[in-house]
Specification:
Structural class of chain B: alpha+beta
Strand content of chain A: 15-25%
Oligomer: heterodimer
Largest sheet of chain B: 8 strands, mixed
CATH superfamily of chain A: Coenzyme PQQ synthesis protein D (PqqD)
Strand order of the largest sheet of chain A: 2-3-4
Distance between the termini of chain A: 18 Å
Structural class of chain A: alpha+beta
Largest sheet of chain A: 3 strands, antiparallel
Number of strands of chain A: 5
Radius of gyration of chain A: 12 Å
Order of helices and strands of chain B: EEHEEHEEHEEEEHEEEEHHEHH
Helix content of chain B: 25-40%
Number of strands of chain B: 15
Number of domains of chain B: 2
Chain lengths: ~90, ~260
């Protein structure tokens, strides 16, 4: 698993969000891409505000899931990889 | 191309030019119109001997003009609600649709569903069902290789009106109660709930024209996935699969077991 290294990820401009049965679906105007996120990715998306760091998001979800940080970190990295791949994050680099 | 016909592709009138339209007018009477209410799309050229190809050409021409989200799907109706079977060609949509008509459902389409972007209510291209020889036999219909309702090129299918299956076309638009993703090749037919997110993905995968409506198509697909129930249907044989689908509604199940019409 590639470790995503982003300081404070933020949703890209022009991304719309709706809920499908508790999961998040996103639509990106610029690429006309629609995406359904799994439960972990949905939770990660909800926490992206451009201020919280990835470490803070991992800590919040580890507490919420009552799971160890390494396991949660893998899920968060996977979610961020998916979001980056679909150009759904602003400034995906450092 | 000496002749011209007008085909109503769920609200979009398409002019198709063919050589000799007499047989087309007989087989496709249910989806033909005399004069377009609005300007017709086309003309597009097609081979009149290939009835399935004529309809495919008309659908292709209508895709960019339709105000609806068009899905590659079969659909049947009961109790004023529709069950939709999204799927690509060759996945058994027509056979499952035909088997459901045998179980008391009304006919919507075996090929093309139109979703209203605002209400998510649907109607369909109510052509005759295009059934393979295997499906014709499975429905208990006479398997006549010399029939004049052969379609496709080569003519591998027959055009079967819903009345021959003991059913009738359900007119108008109706809400979707169930979205059923059918998969053939099971040892035993089984119906399993699937997540709304999966329904959403299947709807967009089956869509011909989501790119035309972009965000509105996404919004409509989300609303449809949230309002309908989603199911995976493992199909061992059409009759047992249709019985399971009929079990999702009350009146269709009550009509099960009818003899071939």
């Amino acid at each position: 698993m590639t470790r995503v290294n982003r300081s404070a990820p933020k949703p890209a401009v022009g991304v719309r969000e709706l809920e499908i049965d508790g999961e998040v679906t996103l639509y990106h105007e610029a690429t006309a891409t629609a995406l359904v996120l799994n439960n972990t990715a949905s939770d990660v998306w909800r926490l992206l505000d451009g201020h919280r760091s990835v470490d803070e998001i991992v800590a919040m979800l580890a507490h919420s899931y009552s799971t160890d940080h390494e396991t949660v970190r893998a899920g968060v990295d996977s979610a961020l990889d998916q979001l980056t791949g679909h150009q759904l994050l602003e400034n995906p680099g450092e | 191309m000496s002749d011209s016909v007008l085909i109503d592709v769920v609200g979009v009138t398409v002019r198709v030019r063919v050589d000799g339209a007499e047989r087309l007018r007989t087989i496709l009477a249910n989806v033909m119109v005399d004069e377009p209410a609005d300007a017709a799309v086309g003309p597009v050229d097609a081979d009149a001997d290939d009835v399935e190809g004529v309809l495919a050409a008309a659908v292709r021409a209508a895709i960019d003009s339709s105000p609806d989200l068009l899905l590659h799907a079969g659909a049947v109706a009961a109790d004023g609600q529709v069950t939709v079977f999204p799927g690509a060609s060759g996945q058994g949509k027509s056979t499952l649709t035909a088997a459901c008509l045998r179980h008391g459902f009304g006919y919507v389409t075996d090929e093309l569903v139109a979703v209203d972007l605002d209400t998510q209510q649907v109607n369909g291209l109510a052509r005759p069902l295009f059934l393979t020889a295997w499906s014709v036999r499975a429905m208990g219909l006479p398997d006549d290789d010399a029939a004049d309702d052969l379609v496709g090129k080569p003519a591998g299918k027959r055009a079967v009106p819903p009345e021959q299956l003991g059913s009738a076309t359900t007119p108008g638009r109706h809400p979707v109660a169930n979205v059923v993703i059918a998969r053939r090749g099971a040892q035993a037919s089984a119906l399993t709930p699937i997540a709304a997110g999966t329904v959403f993905e299947e709807i967009l995968t089956a869509s011909f024209n989501h790119y035309v409506h972009a965000e509105r198509a996404w919004t409509a697909a989300v609303a449809l996935a949230n309002s309908a129930r989603g199911w995976r249907l493992d199909v061992a044989d059409p009759a047992s699969a249709a019985e399971l689908v009929a079990g999702l509604t009350s009146s269709a199940g009550a009509g099960a077991g009818g003899s071939p019409g």
